[in-house]
Amino acid sequence: MQTNLRERGMAMHSEPDDMQHGHRIMVVDDELHVRKSIMSYLERHGYRVVAFDNCVDALEAYRLDGCDLIITDVKMPVMNGVEFLGHIRDIDPDIPVILMTAYGNLEMAVEAIKKGAFDFIIKPFEFECLLAAIAKGIRYRSLARLEKDHTLQLEQALAEKVRELQAVHAQSVLSEKMATIGLLSAGVAHEINNPLAFIASNLGSLDKYLVRLTDFIDWQTERMKASCPLELLAEQEQYRKARKIDYLVNDVRVLLDESLEGVTRIRKIVASLKSFARKDDDVLELADLNELVESTLNIVWNEIKYVATLNREFGEIPPIRCYPSQLNQVIMNLLVNAAHAMKGEGAITVRTWQDEKGVCLAVSDTGCGMTEEIRSRIFEPFFTTKEAGRGTGLGLAISNDIIMKHSGTIDVSSEVGKGTTFTVRLPLDPVILPHEGSVREGEAGGEPNA
After folding, report:
1. Cβ of 20: how many Cβ atoms within 10 Å?
2. Residue 267 belongs to domain spanning
3. What is the DSSP string of 21-46?
4. Is the CB of residue 398 less than 8 Å from the CB of residue 382?
5. What would the DSSP string read from start to end of 177-206?
6. How does pLDDT run across 190-214, given as a tens digit for each residue?
7. What are phi and psi of 189, to 5 degrees?
8. Domain tally for the chain?
9. Pairing of strands 119-122, 97-101
10. Predicted structure pTM score
11. Which of 45, 170, 422, 427 would you label with 58, given CA atoms 20 to 30 Å apart?
Protein backbone atom coordinates (compact mmCIF):
# COMPACT_ATOMS: atom_id res chain seq x y z
CA MET A 1 0.00 0.00 0.00
CA GLN A 2 1.39 3.42 -1.01
CA THR A 3 2.37 5.80 1.75
CA ASN A 4 1.47 9.49 1.55
CA LEU A 5 3.69 11.07 -1.11
CA ARG A 6 4.47 14.18 0.90
CA GLU A 7 5.33 12.10 3.96
CA ARG A 8 7.64 9.88 1.89
CA GLY A 9 9.41 12.86 0.39
CA MET A 10 9.81 14.67 3.69
CA ALA A 11 10.81 11.55 5.64
CA MET A 12 13.88 10.99 3.49
CA HIS A 13 15.60 14.26 4.41
CA SER A 14 15.65 17.07 6.89
CA GLU A 15 15.68 20.77 5.99
CA PRO A 16 17.57 23.12 8.27
CA ASP A 17 15.67 26.34 8.95
CA ASP A 18 18.36 28.49 7.38
CA MET A 19 18.02 26.59 4.08
CA GLN A 20 14.25 26.97 3.61
CA HIS A 21 14.97 29.76 1.12
CA GLY A 22 16.84 27.35 -1.26
CA HIS A 23 15.50 26.04 -4.54
CA ARG A 24 13.47 22.84 -4.36
CA ILE A 25 15.05 19.83 -6.11
CA MET A 26 13.31 16.51 -6.79
CA VAL A 27 15.54 13.41 -6.92
CA VAL A 28 14.16 10.17 -8.39
CA ASP A 29 16.29 6.99 -8.22
CA ASP A 30 15.48 3.42 -7.22
CA GLU A 31 18.86 2.98 -5.48
CA LEU A 32 18.73 4.19 -1.87
CA HIS A 33 22.44 4.97 -1.54
CA VAL A 34 22.33 7.14 -4.69
CA ARG A 35 19.33 9.09 -3.40
CA LYS A 36 20.91 9.64 0.01
CA SER A 37 24.29 10.74 -1.33
CA ILE A 38 22.73 13.24 -3.79
CA MET A 39 20.37 14.57 -1.11
CA SER A 40 23.13 15.00 1.43
CA TYR A 41 25.40 16.80 -1.02
CA LEU A 42 22.70 19.15 -2.33
CA GLU A 43 21.38 20.01 1.13
CA ARG A 44 24.87 21.03 2.22
CA HIS A 45 24.81 23.47 -0.70
CA GLY A 46 21.55 25.07 0.38
CA TYR A 47 19.03 23.22 -1.74
CA ARG A 48 15.80 21.76 -0.44
CA VAL A 49 15.51 18.16 -1.61
CA VAL A 50 12.61 15.74 -1.89
CA ALA A 51 13.32 12.18 -3.07
CA PHE A 52 11.34 9.25 -4.50
CA ASP A 53 12.22 5.69 -5.45
CA ASN A 54 9.88 5.54 -8.46
CA CYS A 55 8.62 7.87 -11.18
CA VAL A 56 4.90 7.24 -10.57
CA ASP A 57 5.00 8.65 -7.04
CA ALA A 58 7.34 11.44 -8.16
CA LEU A 59 4.93 12.47 -10.94
CA GLU A 60 2.00 12.65 -8.53
CA ALA A 61 4.09 14.66 -6.05
CA TYR A 62 5.07 17.10 -8.79
CA ARG A 63 1.41 17.60 -9.67
CA LEU A 64 0.73 18.42 -6.01
CA ASP A 65 3.69 20.60 -5.05
CA GLY A 66 5.94 21.18 -8.06
CA CYS A 67 9.66 21.96 -7.74
CA ASP A 68 12.42 23.98 -9.40
CA LEU A 69 14.45 21.14 -10.97
CA ILE A 70 14.22 17.34 -11.33
CA ILE A 71 17.05 14.78 -11.30
CA THR A 72 15.96 11.30 -12.35
CA ASP A 73 17.57 8.01 -13.26
CA VAL A 74 16.66 6.58 -16.66
CA LYS A 75 16.40 2.91 -15.68
CA MET A 76 13.45 2.85 -13.27
CA PRO A 77 10.73 0.29 -12.42
CA VAL A 78 7.14 0.72 -13.75
CA MET A 79 7.90 4.01 -15.55
CA ASN A 80 11.38 4.81 -16.86
CA GLY A 81 13.00 8.23 -16.69
CA VAL A 82 12.35 9.15 -20.33
CA GLU A 83 8.62 8.40 -19.98
CA PHE A 84 8.59 10.37 -16.74
CA LEU A 85 10.25 13.27 -18.56
CA GLY A 86 7.49 13.25 -21.18
CA HIS A 87 4.75 13.44 -18.54
CA ILE A 88 6.56 16.25 -16.72
CA ARG A 89 6.92 18.20 -19.97
CA ASP A 90 3.15 17.93 -20.50
CA ILE A 91 2.63 19.61 -17.13
CA ASP A 92 5.36 22.25 -17.34
CA PRO A 93 7.47 22.69 -20.51
CA ASP A 94 9.97 24.93 -18.67
CA ILE A 95 10.97 22.68 -15.76
CA PRO A 96 14.63 21.58 -16.19
CA VAL A 97 15.04 17.79 -15.98
CA ILE A 98 18.49 16.17 -15.64
CA LEU A 99 18.65 12.48 -16.61
CA MET A 100 21.19 10.08 -15.06
CA THR A 101 22.17 6.68 -16.41
CA ALA A 102 24.89 4.11 -15.91
CA TYR A 103 24.65 3.15 -19.56
CA GLY A 104 26.35 5.31 -22.17
CA ASN A 105 23.60 4.71 -24.72
CA LEU A 106 23.68 7.33 -27.49
CA GLU A 107 20.21 6.48 -28.76
CA MET A 108 18.77 6.88 -25.28
CA ALA A 109 20.52 10.25 -24.90
CA VAL A 110 19.12 11.44 -28.25
CA GLU A 111 15.60 10.33 -27.25
CA ALA A 112 15.97 12.13 -23.92
CA ILE A 113 17.05 15.35 -25.64
CA LYS A 114 14.10 15.06 -28.03
CA LYS A 115 11.79 14.68 -25.06
CA GLY A 116 13.18 17.92 -23.63
CA ALA A 117 15.86 16.82 -21.16
CA PHE A 118 17.90 19.76 -19.92
CA ASP A 119 21.06 17.67 -19.37
CA PHE A 120 22.24 14.05 -19.51
CA ILE A 121 24.77 12.73 -16.94
CA ILE A 122 26.56 9.37 -17.08
CA LYS A 123 27.07 7.48 -13.79
CA PRO A 124 29.38 7.52 -11.97
CA PHE A 125 29.81 11.29 -11.98
CA GLU A 126 31.59 13.97 -10.01
CA PHE A 127 29.26 15.89 -7.71
CA GLU A 128 30.81 19.13 -8.94
CA CYS A 129 29.55 18.29 -12.45
CA LEU A 130 26.06 17.62 -11.10
CA LEU A 131 26.18 20.86 -9.10
CA ALA A 132 27.19 22.80 -12.22
CA ALA A 133 24.35 21.23 -14.22
CA ILE A 134 21.89 22.10 -11.45
CA ALA A 135 23.12 25.70 -11.32
CA LYS A 136 22.62 26.03 -15.08
CA GLY A 137 19.18 24.47 -14.79
CA ILE A 138 18.13 26.83 -11.99
CA ARG A 139 19.34 29.82 -14.03
CA TYR A 140 17.40 28.53 -17.01
CA ARG A 141 14.31 28.09 -14.84
CA SER A 142 14.62 31.63 -13.46
CA LEU A 143 15.15 33.12 -16.91
CA ALA A 144 12.21 31.14 -18.29
CA ARG A 145 10.00 32.50 -15.53
CA LEU A 146 11.21 36.04 -16.12
CA GLU A 147 10.65 35.65 -19.84
CA LYS A 148 7.16 34.26 -19.27
CA ASP A 149 6.31 37.10 -16.89
CA HIS A 150 7.74 39.66 -19.30
CA THR A 151 5.88 38.08 -22.22
CA LEU A 152 2.67 38.14 -20.21
CA GLN A 153 3.23 41.81 -19.37
CA LEU A 154 3.91 42.58 -23.02
CA GLU A 155 0.81 40.68 -24.10
CA GLN A 156 -1.29 42.53 -21.55
CA ALA A 157 0.18 45.87 -22.62
CA LEU A 158 -0.36 44.98 -26.27
CA ALA A 159 -3.94 43.92 -25.58
CA GLU A 160 -4.55 47.20 -23.76
CA LYS A 161 -3.05 49.20 -26.64
CA VAL A 162 -5.11 47.25 -29.16
CA ARG A 163 -8.18 47.90 -27.04
CA GLU A 164 -7.37 51.62 -26.89
CA LEU A 165 -6.76 51.76 -30.64
CA GLN A 166 -10.03 49.95 -31.27
CA ALA A 167 -11.81 52.41 -29.03
CA VAL A 168 -10.17 55.40 -30.70
CA HIS A 169 -11.00 53.97 -34.11
CA ALA A 170 -14.58 53.24 -33.10
CA GLN A 171 -14.97 56.73 -31.69
CA SER A 172 -13.43 58.20 -34.83
CA VAL A 173 -15.89 56.25 -36.96
CA LEU A 174 -18.78 57.36 -34.76
CA SER A 175 -17.59 60.97 -34.83
CA GLU A 176 -17.33 60.85 -38.61
CA LYS A 177 -20.78 59.32 -38.75
CA MET A 178 -22.19 62.09 -36.59
CA ALA A 179 -20.41 64.70 -38.72
CA THR A 180 -21.90 63.09 -41.82
CA ILE A 181 -25.32 63.09 -40.18
CA GLY A 182 -24.80 66.77 -39.43
CA LEU A 183 -24.05 67.54 -43.06
CA LEU A 184 -26.89 65.39 -44.32
CA SER A 185 -29.34 66.76 -41.78
CA ALA A 186 -28.67 70.30 -42.97
CA GLY A 187 -29.56 69.27 -46.50
CA VAL A 188 -32.48 67.13 -45.38
CA ALA A 189 -33.76 69.94 -43.17
CA HIS A 190 -33.63 72.29 -46.16
CA GLU A 191 -35.49 69.78 -48.31
CA ILE A 192 -38.09 69.26 -45.59
CA ASN A 193 -38.48 72.92 -44.72
CA ASN A 194 -39.32 74.00 -48.28
CA PRO A 195 -42.40 71.77 -48.77
CA LEU A 196 -43.20 72.21 -45.09
CA ALA A 197 -43.42 75.96 -45.66
CA PHE A 198 -45.88 75.37 -48.51
CA ILE A 199 -47.95 73.02 -46.35
CA ALA A 200 -47.99 75.46 -43.43
CA SER A 201 -48.92 78.35 -45.73
CA ASN A 202 -51.66 76.35 -47.42
CA LEU A 203 -53.05 75.15 -44.11
CA GLY A 204 -53.10 78.73 -42.90
CA SER A 205 -54.99 79.79 -46.02
CA LEU A 206 -57.41 76.87 -45.64
CA ASP A 207 -58.03 77.95 -42.08
CA LYS A 208 -58.94 81.46 -43.23
CA TYR A 209 -61.08 80.11 -46.07
CA LEU A 210 -62.92 77.84 -43.66
CA VAL A 211 -63.77 80.80 -41.44
CA ARG A 212 -65.13 82.72 -44.44
CA LEU A 213 -67.11 79.71 -45.71
CA THR A 214 -68.70 79.00 -42.34
CA ASP A 215 -69.57 82.70 -41.98
CA PHE A 216 -71.17 82.63 -45.43
CA ILE A 217 -73.15 79.45 -44.67
CA ASP A 218 -74.43 80.95 -41.42
CA TRP A 219 -75.37 84.23 -43.19
CA GLN A 220 -77.11 82.39 -46.02
CA THR A 221 -79.03 80.20 -43.59
CA GLU A 222 -80.33 83.22 -41.71
CA ARG A 223 -81.40 84.98 -44.94
CA MET A 224 -83.21 81.90 -46.20
CA LYS A 225 -85.08 81.51 -42.93
CA ALA A 226 -86.42 85.04 -43.39
CA SER A 227 -87.48 84.76 -47.05
CA CYS A 228 -87.97 81.12 -48.12
CA PRO A 229 -91.16 79.07 -47.73
CA LEU A 230 -91.20 76.67 -44.80
CA GLU A 231 -91.41 73.67 -47.12
CA LEU A 232 -88.19 74.67 -48.88
CA LEU A 233 -86.48 75.34 -45.56
CA ALA A 234 -87.50 71.90 -44.29
CA GLU A 235 -86.15 70.28 -47.46
CA GLN A 236 -82.89 72.19 -47.13
CA GLU A 237 -82.52 71.21 -43.47
CA GLN A 238 -83.16 67.56 -44.32
CA TYR A 239 -80.52 67.67 -47.06
CA ARG A 240 -78.08 69.40 -44.68
CA LYS A 241 -78.51 66.68 -42.08
CA ALA A 242 -78.27 63.88 -44.65
CA ARG A 243 -74.98 65.26 -45.91
CA LYS A 244 -73.76 65.94 -42.33
CA ILE A 245 -72.78 69.47 -43.29
CA ASP A 246 -72.50 70.69 -39.68
CA TYR A 247 -70.30 67.70 -38.76
CA LEU A 248 -68.09 68.26 -41.82
CA VAL A 249 -67.61 71.94 -40.99
CA ASN A 250 -66.60 71.09 -37.40
CA ASP A 251 -64.42 68.13 -38.43
CA VAL A 252 -62.56 70.18 -41.05
CA ARG A 253 -61.70 72.59 -38.25
CA VAL A 254 -60.32 69.71 -36.12
CA LEU A 255 -58.36 68.28 -39.07
CA LEU A 256 -56.83 71.66 -39.81
CA ASP A 257 -55.83 72.18 -36.18
CA GLU A 258 -54.22 68.71 -36.02
CA SER A 259 -52.39 69.30 -39.30
CA LEU A 260 -51.06 72.65 -38.10
CA GLU A 261 -49.95 70.99 -34.85
CA GLY A 262 -48.17 68.28 -36.89
CA VAL A 263 -46.38 70.92 -38.95
CA THR A 264 -45.23 72.63 -35.76
CA ARG A 265 -43.92 69.31 -34.40
CA ILE A 266 -42.05 68.54 -37.64
CA ARG A 267 -40.43 71.96 -37.49
CA LYS A 268 -39.33 71.32 -33.90
CA ILE A 269 -37.88 67.91 -34.85
CA VAL A 270 -35.99 69.38 -37.82
CA ALA A 271 -34.66 72.21 -35.65
CA SER A 272 -33.64 69.72 -32.96
CA LEU A 273 -31.91 67.50 -35.51
CA LYS A 274 -29.96 70.44 -36.93
CA SER A 275 -28.97 71.58 -33.45
CA PHE A 276 -28.15 68.05 -32.31
CA ALA A 277 -25.98 67.06 -35.26
CA ARG A 278 -24.12 70.29 -35.81
CA LYS A 279 -20.42 70.47 -35.01
CA ASP A 280 -19.39 72.65 -32.07
CA ASP A 281 -15.92 73.42 -33.48
CA ASP A 282 -14.65 73.57 -29.88
CA VAL A 283 -16.36 76.91 -29.29
CA LEU A 284 -18.10 77.34 -25.96
CA GLU A 285 -21.61 78.76 -26.21
CA LEU A 286 -24.23 79.87 -23.74
CA ALA A 287 -27.03 77.32 -23.68
CA ASP A 288 -30.09 76.49 -21.60
CA LEU A 289 -29.86 72.93 -20.27
CA ASN A 290 -33.66 72.65 -20.20
CA GLU A 291 -33.82 73.50 -23.90
CA LEU A 292 -31.09 70.96 -24.66
CA VAL A 293 -33.14 68.30 -22.87
CA GLU A 294 -36.28 69.24 -24.80
CA SER A 295 -34.51 69.18 -28.17
CA THR A 296 -33.02 65.77 -27.36
CA LEU A 297 -36.42 64.45 -26.28
CA ASN A 298 -37.72 65.36 -29.73
CA ILE A 299 -35.05 63.08 -31.22
CA VAL A 300 -35.43 60.08 -28.89
CA TRP A 301 -39.15 60.27 -28.17
CA ASN A 302 -39.83 57.20 -30.28
CA GLU A 303 -37.56 55.15 -27.97
CA ILE A 304 -39.41 56.32 -24.87
CA LYS A 305 -43.10 56.62 -25.68
CA TYR A 306 -43.79 52.89 -26.03
CA VAL A 307 -42.05 51.78 -22.81
CA ALA A 308 -42.34 54.58 -20.26
CA THR A 309 -44.20 57.64 -19.14
CA LEU A 310 -42.04 60.76 -19.04
CA ASN A 311 -41.97 63.14 -16.09
CA ARG A 312 -40.39 66.56 -16.56
CA GLU A 313 -39.26 68.34 -13.41
CA PHE A 314 -37.38 71.32 -14.81
CA GLY A 315 -36.09 73.90 -12.39
CA GLU A 316 -35.26 77.54 -13.03
CA ILE A 317 -31.62 77.39 -14.04
CA PRO A 318 -29.21 79.91 -15.57
CA PRO A 319 -27.57 79.30 -18.95
CA ILE A 320 -24.18 77.59 -18.96
CA ARG A 321 -21.17 77.85 -21.23
CA CYS A 322 -20.81 74.51 -22.98
CA TYR A 323 -20.58 72.55 -26.20
CA PRO A 324 -24.33 72.14 -26.82
CA SER A 325 -24.29 69.26 -29.31
CA GLN A 326 -21.95 67.28 -27.07
CA LEU A 327 -24.26 67.71 -24.09
CA ASN A 328 -27.12 66.66 -26.39
CA GLN A 329 -25.19 63.44 -26.97
CA VAL A 330 -24.84 62.83 -23.24
CA ILE A 331 -28.54 63.48 -22.63
CA MET A 332 -29.47 61.17 -25.51
CA ASN A 333 -27.31 58.34 -24.12
CA LEU A 334 -28.89 58.68 -20.67
CA LEU A 335 -32.46 58.81 -22.01
CA VAL A 336 -32.05 55.88 -24.41
CA ASN A 337 -30.32 53.79 -21.74
CA ALA A 338 -33.20 54.54 -19.38
CA ALA A 339 -35.69 53.40 -22.03
CA HIS A 340 -33.69 50.23 -22.72
CA ALA A 341 -33.63 49.42 -19.00
CA MET A 342 -37.41 49.03 -18.91
CA LYS A 343 -38.93 45.58 -18.48
CA GLY A 344 -42.52 46.35 -19.38
CA GLU A 345 -43.96 49.82 -18.86
CA GLY A 346 -42.21 52.12 -16.41
CA ALA A 347 -41.42 55.76 -15.79
CA ILE A 348 -38.53 58.05 -16.69
CA THR A 349 -38.02 61.27 -14.75
CA VAL A 350 -35.83 64.10 -16.02
CA ARG A 351 -35.01 66.69 -13.37
CA THR A 352 -32.90 69.86 -13.51
CA TRP A 353 -31.91 72.23 -10.73
CA GLN A 354 -29.24 74.67 -9.65
CA ASP A 355 -26.89 74.19 -6.73
CA GLU A 356 -24.03 76.26 -5.33
CA LYS A 357 -21.56 74.97 -7.93
CA GLY A 358 -23.63 75.08 -11.12
CA VAL A 359 -26.52 73.24 -12.73
CA CYS A 360 -27.53 69.62 -12.33
CA LEU A 361 -29.38 67.07 -14.44
CA ALA A 362 -30.77 63.77 -13.17
CA VAL A 363 -32.25 61.04 -15.38
CA SER A 364 -34.04 58.37 -13.34
CA ASP A 365 -35.79 55.22 -14.48
CA THR A 366 -37.82 52.49 -12.82
CA GLY A 367 -36.09 49.78 -14.86
CA CYS A 368 -34.18 46.66 -13.93
CA GLY A 369 -31.32 48.38 -12.09
CA MET A 370 -27.68 47.26 -11.94
CA THR A 371 -25.54 45.10 -9.69
CA GLU A 372 -22.53 46.69 -7.99
CA GLU A 373 -20.20 44.79 -10.33
CA ILE A 374 -21.91 46.17 -13.44
CA ARG A 375 -22.20 49.66 -11.94
CA SER A 376 -18.45 49.75 -11.33
CA ARG A 377 -17.72 49.03 -15.01
CA ILE A 378 -20.33 51.00 -16.97
CA PHE A 379 -17.92 53.78 -17.94
CA GLU A 380 -15.36 51.34 -19.37
CA PRO A 381 -15.05 51.52 -23.18
CA PHE A 382 -16.77 48.59 -24.93
CA PHE A 383 -18.44 47.33 -21.73
CA THR A 384 -22.11 46.62 -22.40
CA THR A 385 -24.84 44.44 -20.95
CA LYS A 386 -27.01 44.75 -24.04
CA GLU A 387 -27.51 42.06 -26.62
CA ALA A 388 -25.39 42.11 -29.78
CA GLY A 389 -26.35 44.83 -32.21
CA ARG A 390 -28.04 47.07 -29.65
CA GLY A 391 -25.01 48.86 -28.27
CA THR A 392 -21.28 49.32 -28.80
CA GLY A 393 -20.36 49.88 -25.16
CA LEU A 394 -19.03 53.36 -25.98
CA GLY A 395 -22.03 55.56 -25.15
CA LEU A 396 -21.42 56.03 -21.43
CA ALA A 397 -17.64 56.06 -21.87
CA ILE A 398 -17.93 58.94 -24.35
CA SER A 399 -20.54 60.66 -22.16
CA ASN A 400 -18.19 60.50 -19.18
CA ASP A 401 -15.39 62.02 -21.23
CA ILE A 402 -17.66 64.82 -22.48
CA ILE A 403 -18.74 65.70 -18.94
CA MET A 404 -15.12 65.62 -17.75
CA LYS A 405 -14.26 67.92 -20.67
CA HIS A 406 -16.82 70.35 -19.23
CA SER A 407 -15.14 70.13 -15.79
CA GLY A 408 -18.23 68.32 -14.54
CA THR A 409 -19.07 64.98 -12.96
CA ILE A 410 -21.43 62.14 -13.77
CA ASP A 411 -22.50 59.76 -11.00
CA VAL A 412 -24.79 56.76 -10.91
CA SER A 413 -26.85 55.13 -8.18
CA SER A 414 -28.76 51.93 -8.82
CA GLU A 415 -30.68 49.18 -7.09
CA VAL A 416 -31.49 45.88 -8.75
CA GLY A 417 -35.19 45.61 -9.50
CA LYS A 418 -35.92 49.25 -8.60
CA GLY A 419 -34.11 51.42 -11.12
CA THR A 420 -31.17 53.70 -11.82
CA THR A 421 -30.39 57.41 -11.55
CA PHE A 422 -27.61 59.17 -13.46
CA THR A 423 -26.72 62.61 -12.07
CA VAL A 424 -24.72 65.12 -14.10
CA ARG A 425 -23.25 68.23 -12.46
CA LEU A 426 -21.90 71.04 -14.63
CA PRO A 427 -20.25 74.34 -13.68
CA LEU A 428 -21.71 77.54 -15.13
CA ASP A 429 -18.37 78.44 -16.70
CA PRO A 430 -16.17 75.34 -17.15
CA VAL A 431 -12.39 75.32 -17.18
CA ILE A 432 -11.75 73.34 -20.34
CA LEU A 433 -8.88 70.90 -19.87
CA PRO A 434 -6.55 70.00 -22.76
CA HIS A 435 -7.12 66.55 -24.24
CA GLU A 436 -4.63 63.73 -24.04
CA GLY A 437 -6.10 61.59 -26.80
CA SER A 438 -8.05 59.42 -24.40
CA VAL A 439 -10.40 56.72 -25.55
CA ARG A 440 -13.43 58.82 -24.74
CA GLU A 441 -12.16 62.10 -26.11
CA GLY A 442 -13.89 63.69 -29.06
CA GLU A 443 -16.91 65.38 -30.42
CA ALA A 444 -20.44 64.31 -29.73
CA GLY A 445 -19.86 61.08 -31.55
CA GLY A 446 -21.18 57.84 -30.18
CA GLU A 447 -24.24 55.69 -29.91
CA PRO A 448 -26.53 55.23 -26.92
CA ASN A 449 -25.51 52.15 -25.02
CA ALA A 450 -24.31 50.98 -21.69
Report:
1. 10
2. 167-278
3. TSPEEEEE-S-HHHHHHHHHHHHHTT
4. no
5. HHHHHHHHHHHHHHHHHHHHHHHHHHHHHH
6. 667 778 777 888 888 888 888 888 8
7. -60, -40
8. 3
9. parallel
10. 0.47
11. 45
